[in-house]
């Protein structure tokens, strides 16, 4: 195995990505697929805003509008935000802890392909008789009576991509527990790694309830069960609980990595150690913990009774405390730092006021009594877009600029990046700020149109203009990405010049084995410490030796493809006679591939020491 | 790279210490095993007793079961040993999350 890069044709590159088990390439796959679904979900958002721009509009029908809002929410949460965060976790987390790959590279690839096929399956609903239309929460009382196969696409698609997310999360957990470099204790891990750890633990506990809920729903809709059918003795509220027992941790699974990304950015561009590191870790863990005890605040108006409402209201407000700790720590990190205004830092600056506003309205809607007023109005829409766009999406855009050089070896244009930021940031506030008031004035959410003269006209027009601004911002960013890739100006290890964590100590993009020798970590901000001690790179923790690497494999793709085929069979088995055959065929492909994987010994390969020794650096650097 | 055997033929391994440790381990296992048998007998006895109502017997048996699970995990599956901190943490976190859900279902869903 030669370590010298060779020029490859398109087919070879495609095959490489279809079979790769390298965490850096899987990160790129997640970034491309997540980016694609982000654009799809964004288009759906634009359609929503066009429809609502003027009263009595007929741009789309009421039925199509329901499909669009359902798919916008589902796509953005499951197929855009999660995979994009997974992209950065995959790309950066193993580097930050000084590992050569994740613990289970094969499982990592499997997780991606399951997500991908689940996402494709869900979106094929547009072309196969209509998308799901019961909202992204898909409440059972709506969903089991939904005509056509829309909700079946939702149930089966999310089930498949949910398995992918679950095994991805377990993989990250095992990686962080077992594969930290010598000296990398838990309390020396960068905040992004910490937030990956906590978010992965939350995935481990939050996804099983979703799996259970989707399974029950699948049996109700496809196999004649009556778990949620009240007339047959079922209970429709069970779905709501199962969904939110998953759903609330899910939004923290999204926001914690975002917090991690911003912690890295604040520290890096203030050129200062993160203020209150240990309290940041504590707050992250506490938010993860509290996230499991608040789900019923989504159901205040479902009739849980005053005691349950009060308990969940107080638990919800308690989350404001660790979040406040974080906000102040970020401010104190900048205070007294030598702040450099780069594109990621713009996003980080914009994030603080935006997210605090989302947090404040969060405490408002957490007040159970007041929530009866806010519930199902645009106030709630404004609130969750302030935390998700103002938190998660800003973090994803910031991370794209921050880690682009590490993932691709090229630097995104800073000027274009700042223009993107201003368009997106202004557009975001223009779109969603006014929606608070729309909600308070009484505009319900999930309505496909409204009558003129009710006081909603001007505010909705403003909101739609904001959506146009955000779209322009995203288009400029796409242009930036294309131009940067075409120009292909390579950068060195530490392109921002102030890198603190281990990923900046190795080339951009890193070689496929990441670290020639595992680095010795002497403290928090390991690379920064070495630079301050006057060294050029990390001190190696081991002599140069053979590196064991996993082989590429096409089996993850086949396992996922089998489930994709089986899902069609499950969906159509009542309509067509071939349905059952397709279901069995798909499961055969999946289990056959798993069997093949089990019986075929695959020991991987070694990169030999001689191939690693480079004349220029004598192999002494990590 | 060759696989290195960590103990065989290594003169620095303290055989005496190992033996003492193993004996201690064995003692714990025997004690917890006999306790578990005893608890099982108690469980059967509580069911056999005519005077106890189901309202006492059911929670009592469940309590005994929990104790047995803890014995099983800590003494037979070696969770009391060093290096099991992460599994312990995740086991109890999972238990916490699961029991919260069950509690909620018992109190506010199937009221």
Automatic annotation (TrEMBL), chain A:
Membrane-topology descriptor: Multi-pass membrane protein
Domain of life according to the entry: Bacteria
UniProt protein name: Cytochrome c oxidase subunit 1
Biological or metabolic pathway of the protein: Energy metabolism; oxidative phosphorylation
EC number: 7.1.1.9
Cellular compartments annotated: Cell membrane; Membrane
The UniProt record lists the keyword Membrane: yes
Major subcellular location class: membrane
GO terms of molecular function: oxidoreductase activity
Function: Cytochrome c oxidase is the component of the respiratory chain that catalyzes the reduction of oxygen to water. Subunits 1-3 form the functional core of the enzyme complex. CO I is the catalytic subunit of the enzyme. Electrons originating in cytochrome c are transferred via the copper A center of subunit 2 and heme A of subunit 1 to the bimetallic center formed by heme A3 and copper B.
Catalytic activity as recorded in UniProt: 4 Fe(II)-[cytochrome c] + O2 + 8 H(+)(in) = 4 Fe(III)-[cytochrome c] + 2 H2O + 4 H(+)(out)
Record domain Cytochrome oxidase subunit I profile: where: 9-522
Automatic annotation (TrEMBL), chain B:
Compartments where found: Cell membrane
EC number: 1.9.3.1
Keywords: Cell membrane, Membrane, Oxidoreductase, Transmembrane, Transmembrane helix
Keyword Calcium: no
Bilayer-crossing regions: 28-49, 55-77, 89-110
Topology in the lipid bilayer: Multi-pass membrane protein
Gene Ontology terms, MF aspect: oxidoreductase activity
Main localization of the protein described in the UniProt heading: membrane
Class of enzymatic activity (EC top level): oxidoreductase
Name of the protein in question: Cytochrome c oxidase subunit 4B
Organism, as annotated: Neobacillus rhizosphaerae
Gene encoding the protein: caaD
